[in-house]
Amino acid sequence: MHNVAPLLNHWIAGKPYEGSADRTADVFDPATGEITKVVALAATSTVDEAIAAAHEAFPAWRDTSLARRTQVLFAFRELLNERKEELAAIITAEHGKVLSDALGEVSRGQEVVEFACGIAHLLKGGLTENASTKVDVSSIRQPVGPVAIISPFNFPAMVPMWFFPVAIAAGNTVILKPSEKDPSAANWIAQLWDEAGLPAGVFNVVHGDKVAVDALLDNPRVKAVSFVGSTPIARYVYERGTANGKRVQALGGAKNHMVVLPDADLDLAADAAVNAGFGSAGERCMAISALVAVGDIADELVEKIRVRAEALETGDGRRGCDMGPLVTRAHRDKVAAYVDAGEEAGAKLVVDGRGVKPNGAENGFWLGPTLIDHVTTGMTVYTDEIFGPVLSVVRVETYDEALALINASDFGNGTAIFTNDGGAARRFQNEVEVGMVGINVPVPVPMAYYSFGGWKNSLFGDTHAHGVEGVHFYTRGKVVTTRWLDPSHGGINLGFPQND
Ligand code: NAD
Q: Relative to the CA of 21, which of 3, 37, 96, 442 has its CA 20 to 30 Å away?
């Protein structure tokens, strides 16, 4: 197999890397189970070459006028918009999500590019005239330098796009290390930047695993790191990166609850639970994995979800199905093992995806929508992030019990409440310890001009992605105090400067 599968290599200094790869990883089409490529896994020395390219490109890019930088961003946006179907097809072929979902991913990434096109407004500083007599004070924000972006498999285009449009627009240079499971989107994006007129070295891609990540975390030329992935790796990246003096924002895993109060419209709640639980086969950090049914609505709600879940077609994402395969066979088996464990622990399987008949090749990594009722908080199907099409139903008596469940979780990425009671919703948004809250919105992913990020073990660091916080992460503040020589400023005074 390895002899025939083409090699996907890094992208360094404006072109595909020509060096050989000592180590590679297989890249699969999850809907067929076939190896379609092998991806290079960078050695430290190769990562250092990419960092050197970003380091060399930084001074000129930082000094390129904001007008010119923004023009490149606009050109990139136009090309992406024209050719987004190409990118969606690449995502489906390596991640497995259905084409319409892949296109949705690209569109949400494109929103951040559009936000970054207007960055001039956010890079404006302030100026106070005559702060002291004939002394002016101004503030400016400057780029930090070469920055690393390390991204997960589940959004191979959108997650990198949460970061690099803002980083580049602000005058930084970038080294992207995408997931080795679906690496091709990153090279396609690099090529598009080239066509948009971005100078060589401003956007680089290194493929790899822990070796590449460690090289990025340890190289002093990398000034900031944006990471997205599972919680243990996020914590590791945060600790190692900050110990090396870098700025780090590390977004981790999730376990998102959707609370349904007794007064909610149960049909709309059931639609939302199915969309948020099984979209992208549950491989979304904002997927709903625990449905918390409050009061006596549980039986009716579960029945409505069952009907909807059983009507979903699982299959090859290119065939117009509702839900695609999981990303790898190992991941599929891990998710299925959680279902086994839930069943053994006494939860009731209402819809069992383990025996799904897919509309796709026999060797695809299939697991159908799975609905498990009567899940309790001691079961691993509840406590662990499963990252698959498994929706657990937890039954509680009161709103307070529902809230306590969520606030006891180690994760705090997203949550949602379904109700028609404005007072209850308002109480929930105030009391819940989660970074992104939906009120009758099951997947509350913020728009690009707000910031994305969770609380607790869902984010290490203190700035969230994109929006104003993203601009702050990729820039450093500087305050300049100015006076132009004037006879009134003469004289010797060793006291601490005071304003008058
Ligand atoms: P992952 O943690 O396995 O990998 C993420 C990145 O870290 C990849 O680039 C990978 O190559 C690298 N990596 C893997 N092992 C490493 C190691 N030992 N040392 C250093 N780097 C390593 O995550 P994944 O499976 O690709 O993605 C799914 C996870 O990402 C889920 O936990 C999901 O919740 C999370 N996620 C979170 C958000 C968010 O916004 N909070 C968004 C998307 C995904």
A: 96
